[in-house]
Amino acid sequence: MRRVVLALLLTAVGLGLLLSFKSRSATAVGGGALGSEAAATATAPATSASPTASASAPATAASTPTPTTKSGAKSGTFTGTAESTQFGNVQVEAVISGGKLTNVIVLQVPDRGGYEDQIVQIAVPELKSEALSAQSANIDVVSGATYTSQGYAESLQSALDQAGL
């Protein structure tokens, strides 16, 4: 009889804890993990067979580069190519100043409205941090976001190539 009561009590407690669990929303993860640069594009609806977070942006330099620096790299903002992944396109812009990568702005990431979006929201800041630390597109893949990580690195590399880095 004691075992039955204990089992029922533990079941009730477990069920209560399960029902009271609240998952973090995508915007709560990292305080809007995509940042202000891409927050608007992350919520745009997908309109094609391969969903994207925004309309395709041109794969050319977004601003006129300044003269070459000592290191041979141009300063400016350079738009990488839109890389197609299994879950959608990934595209970034690289901001180069003084021959160094100073910022990476996300233009497109997969946006299918599911669990994958939460993974992307977590992965993007990690990928940016890795790129800024490495000062290159030679970055580690984020576990659970392999395709997005690879697309991010490829798009970043095309932007860095335009800058001469």
How would you describe this protein?
The structure is a single chain. The protein is an alpha+beta fold and 165 residues long. It has one domain (24-163): Alpha-Beta Complex (Sufe protein. Chain: A), CATH 3.90.1010. It contains four helices and four strands. It has helices at residues 2-20, 39-42, 115-134, 146-163, and strands at residues 76-79, 83-85, 88-97, 100-108. Strands 1, 2, 3 and 4 form a four-stranded antiparallel β-sheet that branches. The protein is elongated, with a radius of gyration of 21 Å. It starts with a helix and ends with a helix. The model is unreliable at 24-70 (pLDDT under 50).
Topology:
Elements: H1 2-20, H2 39-42, E1 76-79, E2 83-85, E3 88-97, E4 100-108, H3 115-134, H4 146-163
Antiparallel strand pairs: 1-3, 2-3, 3-4
Helix pairs in contact: 3-4
Shape: elongated
| Beta-strand content | 15-25%
Based on the structure given, which CATH architecture is correct? Alpha-Beta Complex
Number of strands: 4
Q: Give the helix level as a range of percent.
A: 25-40%
Number of H- or I-type helical stretches: 4
CATH fold naming: Sufe protein. Chain: A
Please summarize the sheet with the most strands: 4 strands, antiparallel
Provide mean pLDDT, rounded. Answer: 74
Low-confidence stretches: 24-70
The SSE order reads HHEEEEHH
Structural class: alpha+beta
